[in-house]
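User: Structure tokens for both sequences below?

Assistant:
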Amino acid sequence: MPNPYRSAVQTLLAVSIVAGSGALDAQQPGCARRSDCAEVTTFTATVTDFRTSQQDRGTRLVTATVRFLNRTTRPLILGYVQNSGVATDDQGNRFVVYGTQAVRGIGEIANTFDPKFVLQPGEASDARFEFVFRMPSAATILGTRYDVELAVREINPIAGNQFRLGKEHVLQYRGFGSEGVVASAPAAAASPTSAPAVTALPPEVDLCAGKVRCYATGPFMAEVDGFTQTTERSQGHHMLRINVRIRNLSSQPVILAYKAKSSGVTDNIGNRYYYGRAGSADGSVTGIGKVEGRNADPQFSLAPGQSRSASFSLIRYYTRGKEIGTSFTHDLTLSELEILPSQQVRVGRDYAVSFKDIGTIVGDQPRAAGNAAAAQLLDVLRKKVGKP
């Protein structure tokens, strides 16, 4: 089975060897001094989602989704520089990227590096970063505005299917609030100079065509086509079930798997929902295989144009007497798999998938309309029961 990741790397090697220094023949448009966007010669990085939430009484979280767009006419590989991510609020509290679940969708660079985050010319894809602040005391004053900084480094291919670290770029964003950008400060560029645009590449195609609760990048598109929420009576646990339909957009078969323990939800008032209790096995998904440790289940295989569904369950414990949100954002990670000639399964690139505003509208129809229809049906049934 053809491997899109390997094909991209082979293309990247060929283009880089021919191009030599990699001079740009064309460029995508830049950030136009937007405060949620940072640009360098080779790519732009735009914060498309910014949220604050509470993990427990003593821990506050900031989650940022960054969409990287390749501005060049050649494939581009990027990696996040480990321990570089910092968010600072206007009270001087420092949030840091920490933990195994903190970086999604992009490889990390430390003593080794992961070259799987490959962007074709003009392609955009997301990475998600979670910043953690552990409050020293209950009296700690939390801010309402945030500045974010992280470093990303280019990974350049060389002969012999090898790679070498290239330029490092510091990306800075100013003036975020709990619901996104609240200030109008210009975005800081990570490089002092930018190559002039000679011929603009075509604008990025919106594969979701304006659909809400839709994610599309690389070889697939994913849409939320079902949502339910229930409350368990004895303990008051609030549970969500989200159905996601995934379609292969490419001309080749695609195998995807859910990355265990990556599924989570934040509601519109900052409450967090999880796959289960911390440290427990992740049994929250049905319909798709999982990547867990060294094991990868390749059951979710899609032919070109084919679509299939998977369901994800999330829970928030002990909600009795507590406020419950009305809108939910679901984050998860899907991994692309390849079956080798030896029948072994290799894990390729990760995709940081996110769906916003789940629950406010279901199936593109107002939930209130569904409730009204249900009430009318119940009224009819009651009248029938009451007849002799």
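Moving on to the next sequence.
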Amino acid sequence: MPSYPALGVVFDVNVYLDALLLKGNKFPELVKVPPKTGMAPIDCLSLAFDADRFSLHISPHIIENIADVLHKVGLSAKVIGNSLQALVEIVQISGGQVVAPPRLAFDSKDFEDNLVLDLLKYTDSKVLVTSDKGLLALNPWNHRLILSPVEFLEHIL
């Protein structure tokens, strides 16, 4: 069977937050591949354990935004720290990395969206997973797919 390089993937802030904050999840306990929770953001994150299929990349910008929202919803500093550590470990398990990309993208009217596109382009990732309607409207972008969590699962599984 031929071996293919892992597909580079970026998850937008909203995918991580949905996975962390959905009722009924047990993060950081994630179902291993294949995911079967029926909650697309959690199942997307579970797929990151399959490092042979794709590598997940994240930026300090995304991590900081996750931390800010988790703080605003009232989680303790300890829970936030543990959650962020778990996310970074998932990225590393996938064969991806934490990257602070240079400014490369200016195609969105939303400055924050451009920072996510910077990561996508700099890591040469081929897929962005997001629930952001503005980003989804750019699909395809620079020969890269921008998919919702449900669409991503349909493509990967």
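User: Anything stand out in the second?

Assistant: The radius of gyration is 15 Å.
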